[in-house]
Design brief:
The complex is a heterodimer.
Chain A (H helix, E strand, L loop, with lengths): L2 H24 L3 H21 L6 H32 L5 H31 L8
Chain B lengths: L1 E2 L1 H8 L3 H8 L3 H8 L7 H10 L4 H4 E2 L8
Antiparallel strand pairs in B: 1-2
Helix pairs in contact in B: 2-3
The chains are: A mainly alpha, B mainly alpha.
């Protein structure tokens, strides 16, 4: 099976799962919705193992760059948002200040996660030591 | 960096799809390499050269400015 056939099959499965879920939610039979989603996931995992190419190096590079851009945009945005909310919404809107605090912790979490990932990848790729 | 991938592919009569299958990438990647929009990794460059039974430097041509030390 090639990538094109896999994508077509994935779209068809997604369509049927979505239809089943919407029907079962409308008729309040939640077990059917759950089993439809699980069956769809298992089926797609099985099919995915049969596909020759899922991603190649160009797509990996694109994903890396997209992740880097997302981090570079999202982290400062949410960081400055946190700063703005905690500074200016202190007295009048206490709930916005709480939101600012949540944003602050989220920013710290993102930076920590990035640093840990960078450190682990640096170790894996042979960086970090000064040996010559 | 320029490349002669299209020329070599035409010489062997390979389609982009067939070449992509041989080197284990998608057709979009072959198109991107041919149009100089994507620079392949060293491993992929060797794979491509091996398909045409030539050296990497025969397929990929480095400009003088890019290798100046």
């Amino acid at each position: 099976m090639n990538l094109k056939k896999y994508k077509q099959l994935r779209a068809a499965v997604a369509f049927f799962v979505a239809a089943l879920v919407s029907m079962s939610v409308a008729s309040k039979t939640y077990l059917l919705a759950f089993s439809a989603v699980v069956t769809g996931m298992i089926f797609l995992t099985f099919v995915r193992s049969k596909v020759k190419i899922i991603i190649d190096e160009r797509e990996k590079t694109m994903r890396e760059k997209a992740a880097q851009m997302t981090y570079a945009i999202f982290t400062p945005t949410i960081g400055f948002g946190a700063l703005f909310l905690t500074m200016f919404a202190r007295d009048e809107y206490p709930f916005l200040q709480s939101l600012g605090i949540v944003f602050s912790y989220l920013t710290l979490f993102l930076i920590t996660l990035y640093s840990i990932s960078f450190f682990i990848l640096s170790r894996q790729m042979g960086g970090g030591s000064d040996e010559e | 960096m320029k490349n002669k991938l299209k020329m070599y592919r035409a010489t062997l009569g390979l389609t982009q799809e067939a070449l992509a299958d041989k080197i284990g990438v998608t057709r979009q990647t072959v198109i991107a390499i041919e149009s100089d929009k994507y620079l392949p990794s060293l491993g992929l460059a060797f794979k491509i050269a091996r398909v045409f039974h030539v050296g990497v430097e025969d397929v990929f041509i480095v400009d003088g400015k890019e290798v100046s030390i």
